[in-house]
Amino acid sequence: MVAVATELAARSIATLRFQFPYMERRTRRPDPPPVCHATVRAAVAEAARLAPRLALIAGGRSFGGRMTSQAQAIEPLAGVKGLAFLGFPLHPAGKPSAERAEHLREVKIPMLFLQGTRDELAKLELLQPLIDQLGARATLKLLEDADHSFHVPARSGRRDADVRAEMLDVLATWIEQAIHPS
Predict the structure, then answer these.
(1) What is the DSSP annotation of 147-180?
(2) 71 in helix, strand or coil?
(3) Is it the case that residue 49 has pLDDT exceeding 90?
(4) Residue-number span of the structural domain to which 135 is assigned
(5) Could you give the number of structural domains in the chain?
(6) pLDDT in tens, 100-113
(7) Amino acid 162: pLDDT
(8) CATH code, 65
């Protein structure tokens, strides 16, 4: 996420990174969803306080993105214009299911899903129909040969940095469209 934040800054996009309490404690077991949702709300409030004139896009990588979308589904995050997911964890590895995404139907703002085609936590045969069901408010950008961490095998002829640059170019364009819809 440090590289992502640095490269977004180079594109004139500010970021606010935060950690959930369980990460601060350096434990593997995530906090209960209400704690995570409250953490997301606190981060959004802090971003609004620090940059009151900027439009807000919330989201995150993997678990952070899912907790952000759940918080938004329960009660809209104040001032947030869209949600961006860097590797949405649709299901646990080896256990394909779309149950983790049922709450997305309650999200009424634009959503961007940036997913690797080799992501073991989001099988495309489940993700694509979900995106289709969400309609115009959901955009899916597939990153060829990338896994859940956006790593690509050497045989692909691409480097992780190339994938990250492609992903962030898409994100920057999407943010501009989410903030200033035509």
Answers:
(1) -TT----GGGT--HHHHHHHHHHHHHHHHHHHHS
(2) helix
(3) yes
(4) 2-179
(5) 1
(6) 999 999 999 999 99
(7) 95
(8) 3.40.50.1820
